[in-house]
């Protein structure tokens, strides 16, 4: 089974620009989450999508947004890029739990390394 | 507030040594779930184990073992007879907000393990 794929793997952007990152989950996984990893803040949760709806959101400014498509693929967008947005952006997918079930483990993609200059 | 602390920033050992990575967590939930992930230099987070708060049995998987102690809020990870391929950053995580969603992982800052030949 193919793992989580993320494109592009590397990206260099200039301050003020916007960027869109893409994530394809493992086949059969309908939940997709995004995390930001930086040396200073570590791994931080951005948001989670299921059935094309955002179910959960981390503490990030509105410049960070995302969406999910009917095939469970997801994109995240960062507008008006700042130097501090330079990070590894990780996408994770999981099976969908029902109420009362144990949370499933999340499987991560290789990430997109974004550099803002 | 939920929090995960990995006090060891970096550990260096020689191959075949045993090494224990510490993880201390804080949560007010009575039911919670803990995870360990490995991040090799390639960047992709690899799921290692999930443990729920009701199961305090230690777990062993090959050279890996985990010691969960609710009394001290710790979930430590031991690698026996370490190998160079074990070199990676290891993250302990707690999941939250999974009531209406898949939940988001709260990660510790990670412990970088270097195993030298």
What report would you give on this structure?
- The complex is a heterodimer of chains A (117) and B (117).
- In chain A, 0% of the residues lie in helices and 51% in strands.
- Chain A has 117 residues and is mainly β.
- In chain A, strands 2, 4, 5, 6, 9, 10 and 11 form a 7-stranded mixed beta sheet that branches. A 4-stranded antiparallel beta sheet of chain A has the order 1-3-8-7, with no helix packed on it.
- Chain A is globular, with a radius of gyration of 14 Å.
- With 117 residues, chain B is mainly beta.
- Helix content of chain B is 0%, strand content 53%.
- Chain B is globular, with a radius of gyration of 14 Å.
- Chain A binds chain B through residues 3, 31, 33, 35, 42-45, 48, 50, 55-56, 58, 88, 90, 92, 94, 96-97, 99, 102-111, 113, and chain B through 33, 35, 37, 42-47, 50, 52, 91, 95, 97-110.
What is the topology?
The complex is a heterodimer of chains A (117) and B (117).
Chain A lengths: L4 E3 L2 E4 L5 E6 L6 E8 L3 E9 L2 E5 L6 E5 L5 E5 L8 E8 L12 E2 L3 E5 L1
Parallel strand pairs in A: 2-11
Antiparallel strand pairs in A: 1-3, 3-8, 4-5, 4-9, 5-6, 7-8, 9-10, 9-11
Chain B lengths: L2 E3 L4 E5 L4 E3 L2 E3 L6 E7 L6 E7 L6 E3 L2 E6 L4 E6 L8 E9 L7 E4 L3 E6 L1
Parallel strand pairs in B: 2-12
Antiparallel strand pairs in B: 1-4, 3-9, 5-6, 5-10, 7-8, 8-9, 10-11, 10-12
Attribute tags:
heterodimer; A: 117 residues; seven-stranded mixed β-sheet; 0% helix; globular; B: mainly beta; six-stranded mixed β-sheet; four-stranded antiparallel β-sheet; 53% strand
Low-pLDDT residue intervals, each spanning 5 or more residues of chain B: none
Please tell me how large the radius of gyration of chain A is.
Answer: 14 Å
- Oligomeric composition of the shown chains: heterodimer
| Helix/strand order of chain B, N-terminal first | EEEEEEEEEEEE
Main sheet: strands, sense, barrel of chain A:
7 strands, mixed
The sequence of SSEs of chain A as H and E is: EEEEEEEEEEE
Main sheet summary of chain B = 6 strands, mixed
């Amino acid at each position: 089974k193919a793992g989580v794929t993320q494109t592009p793997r590397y990206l260099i952007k200039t301050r003020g620009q916007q960027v869109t990152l893409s994530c394809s989950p493992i086949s059969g996984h309908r939940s997709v989450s995004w995390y930001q990893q930086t040396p200073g803040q570590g791994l931080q949760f951005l948001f989670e999508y299921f059935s094309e709806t955002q179910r959960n959101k981390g503490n990030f400014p509105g410049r960070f947004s995302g969406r999910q498509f009917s095939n469970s693929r997801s994109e995240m967008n960062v507008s008006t890029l700042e130097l501090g947005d330079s990070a590894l952006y990780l996408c994770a997918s999981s099976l969908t739990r029902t109420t009362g079930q144990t949370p499933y483990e999340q499987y991560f993609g290789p990430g997109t390394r974004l550099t803002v200059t | 507030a939920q929090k995960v602390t990995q006090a060891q920033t970096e550990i260096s050992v020689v191959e075949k040594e045993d090494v224990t990575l510490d993880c201390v967590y804080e949560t007010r939930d009575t039911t919670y779930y803990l995870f360990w992930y490995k991040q090799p230099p390639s960047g992709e987070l690899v799921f290692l184990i999930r443990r729920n708060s009701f199961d305090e049995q230690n777990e062993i998987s090959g050279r890996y073992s985990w010691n969960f102690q609710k009394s001290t809020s710790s979930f430590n990870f031991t690698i026996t007879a370490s190998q160079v391929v074990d070199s990676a950053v290891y993250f302990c995580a707690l999941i939250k907000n999974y009531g209406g969603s898949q939940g988001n992982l709260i990660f510790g800052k990670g412990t970088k393990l270097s195993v030298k030949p």
